[in-house]
Specification:
Layout (H helix, E strand, L loop, with lengths): L4 H5 L7 H15 L8 H17 L2 H8 L30 E2 L5 E3 L2 E3 L6 H8 L34 E7 L1 H6 L3 E4 L5 E4 L10 E4 L13 E7 L5 E4 L2 E9 H6 L1 E5 L6 E5 L8 E4 L14 E8 L4 H10 L13
Parallel strand pairs: 4-8, 10-14
Antiparallel strand pairs: 1-2, 2-3, 5-6, 7-8, 9-10, 11-12, 13-14
Length: 327
């Protein structure tokens, strides 16, 4: 059974991120293999503490563990006791495993992941984590010779985080976006169907250098607001002003869309609040196809003496529009 990461680090379930990091720093400093070469138990505890920190420092993994969706090793919680061996691999193999979005996992470490504990090692040992020689003469990152003799791949460089604001119409039409990276390189980013604020796009090998290769660039998308379009799922909403004569007599009016204006037919006798649909003029959907544009009419009533005189003579002939409300 996988260990409870909270118990491994000696913190409660309500521990803050700072508390988790503080507890791990203390254990890492005490148990690091280069300081306990004659104590294999310390190496095992160090690996367990690192694995516990790796899980609890990742908010998504921590939430999934708290909900019982994964165990302390990060593997899906198998019902009724069924499941693979240690590390989720057949026969108990606990070596290297794939990681969504790139990187590998070995003995509780995730290389190329945002939660890489190397920054903590830098603070504790002045260069562990791939930016120098490890204490005790081990290789950079301390991943060979110091973990009970079990070697692992050299760590990749850290990921680089970027935020990119994308125009509303660009997001709806999936227009390519130009991104300038920290090294000055400029690339064209192809937006994917379903893009929205918070969407993350990973650019392989565009992060920082490391002994095991470059990390990735992770671009978080912010879709900008629009002066008159609004997003509703995959649909686009628009409030369209129309004149009184267009509403009463009917008309063909020019309507903006996220791509280009189109002609829309307003039926005679249309009232404010009536919604018309333009098929396939919304956002691209993840599963294919596009949403629609929903156009809500807003009848503009002019302040005109002749119109007032006409309505005064016509008052009472239109009936009670609120009768269905019981008033």
């Amino acid at each position: 059974m996988a260990a409870d990461p909270y118990k491994t680090l000696g913190v409660g379930r309500d521990a803050s991120d700072a508390d988790v990091k503080k507890a791990y720093r203390k254990l890492a400093k005490e148990l690091h293999p280069d300081r306990n070469k004659d104590n294999p138990k310390a190496s095992e505890r160090f690996s367990a503490a690192t694995q516990a920190y790796d899980l609890l420092s990742d908010r998504d993994k921590r939430a999934r563990f708290d909900r019982g969706e994964i165990d302390g090793d990060g593997n899906p919680a198998a019902p009724f006791g069924f499941g693979g061996g240690a590390g989720g691999a057949p026969g108990g193999f606990s070596g290297f495993g794939g990681r969504p979005g790139g990187g590998f996992r070995s003995e509780g470490f995730e290389f190329g992941a945002d939660g890489d504990p190397s920054s903590i090692f830098d603070d504790l040992f002045g260069g562990l984590g791939g930016r120098g020689r490890a204490p005790g003469g081990g290789s950079a990152g301390g991943f060979t010779g110091g973990f009970g003799g079990r070697g692992g791949p050299a760590p990749r460089g850290a990921n680089s985080a970027y935020r990119l604001t994308v125009g509303f119409t660009d997001a709806a039409t999936l227009s390519p976006q130009r991104v300038r990276l920290a090294d000055g390189q400029t690339i064209d980013l192809k937006l994917q169907p379903g893009v929205e604020t918070g969407t993350q796009m990973r650019l392989g090998g565009k992060g920082e250098d490391g002994p095991g290769g470059r990390g990735d660039a992770v671009v978080t998308i912010d879709v900008a607001d629009h002066p008159f379009f609004r997003r509703d799922g995959d649909d686009v909403r628009l409030d369209l002003p129309v004149t009184l004569s267009e509403a009463v007599l009917g008309a063909k009016v020019r309507v903006p869309t996220v791509e280009n204006p189109v002609m829309l037919t307003v039926a005679p006798g249309s009232s404010s609040g009536r919604t018309l649909r333009l098929k396939g003029r919304g956002f691209h959907k993840k599963g294919g196809g596009r949403g629609d544009q929903l156009v809500t009419l807003e009848v503009q009533v002019p302040d005109d003496p002749a119109l007032r005189a006409f309505v005064e003579g016509w008052a009472g002939q239109e009936g009670n529009p609120r009768a269905s409300l019981g008033v």
